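Exercise: predict the fold of this chain.
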Amino acid sequence: MVSVLDYFLGRAATDRVAQAKLAGSARGALEAKLFRLSRSGKSPDYQQALDWLQAIVDEGRTELETQHAFERELSGWEMSCRIAFMVRLADLHGRAPLVSEPLDFKPE
């Protein structure tokens, strides 16, 4: 039998992870807009986008660590931020996400 305390503690952790994912997604989308504005009139540079994204992720992880976030929260925030950044940046450019080389995917 699951105790009431275990139920609420488990639910609180799940809610925190979901909240971290939403916050990461919002931050990634916002930073993609800012990156695009900073590059106005210039073509997108893959390496600069990655550097910008890494700086955001480092800053966000530091901020969450000071709030004593769980590792699952940190991972959820980071992945959501990365995904939202790249998807939003691709959407702003009106094409597929930035890729340094074509992907060779061959299903078996």
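Check your answer against the key: DSSP finds three helices and no strands in the chain.
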